[in-house]
Amino acid sequence: MGFKQSLWVLVILIAMSSVCEAKVLCLYARSNNDPMSGHAFVTLEQGDQVLERYGMWPDSKLAENDQILIGNVALNKNGDYPLSILRKKFKVSDNLANMTEAQICEDVGNIKASVIRQIAIEVGEKRYQSLSNNCTHFAIRLFNAVTGADFPSYATPKRSKKEMLKRGWPLVYSEQE
């Protein structure tokens, strides 16, 4: 095989590897020092791209143009971006700017987003309740249902973030940038 042929084979292999890169499902929890402040949500990612975002929101935080899967579950709502992206794309409030975020991700192979959406509909059927069925409960149920993980259910993002760190799961912990 000549140099040109070897080069073409290498180019094709590189192109195929980026197309075939496995997807990961990530559970994010962000908070500040206020235990009742923060947000938890789930993303489907491939490489450095966020393909879809899933989050539960109270009625007061849902807008007319938000894409609702069911009840209080939004698909691709801007607030469900990781902090690193939020800070780059949008002007964020002081409260949000002072939060830190943790994430855990699990490989989900080449799962189709439509499968995750269906599971999100099933686990998000109940309406938002601040203490018994909030964004954190939803995000953990969705993450566990899709990945088969056994992450424990907590009522607040702050407590979930603490558990991620305690378990030593593969995570990224990003302070203010």
What does this structure look like?
There is one protein chain. With 177 residues, the protein is of the alpha+beta class. The chain has one domain (22-174). It is 36% helix and 25% strand. The chain has 6 helices and 7 strands. It has helices at 3-19, 83-89, 94-97, 113-123, 135-147, 157-167; strands at 23-31, 39-46, 49-56, 67-70, 73-75, 100-107, 171-174. Strands 4-5-3-2-1-6-7 form a 7-stranded antiparallel β-sheet. Helix 4 (113-123) crosses helix 5 (135-147). Mean pLDDT is 85; it is low at 9-18 and 173-177.
Sum up the structure in keywords.
177 residues, alpha+beta, 7 strands
Count of extended strands: 7
Largest beta-sheet details = 7 strands, antiparallel
The quaternary structure here is single chain
Low-confidence stretches: 9-18, 173-177
Q: Approximately how much helix is present in the residues? A: 25-40%
| SSE string | HEEEEEHHEHHHE
Kindly report the average pLDDT value. Answer: 85
SS class: alpha+beta
Radius of gyration based on Cα positions: 18 Å
Shape by Cα distribution: globular
Number of domains: 1
Q: Major sheet: order of its strands?
A: 4-5-3-2-1-6-7
Q: How many helices does DSSP assign?
A: 6
Q: Alpha-carbon distance between the termini?
A: 49 Å
Strand content: 15-25%
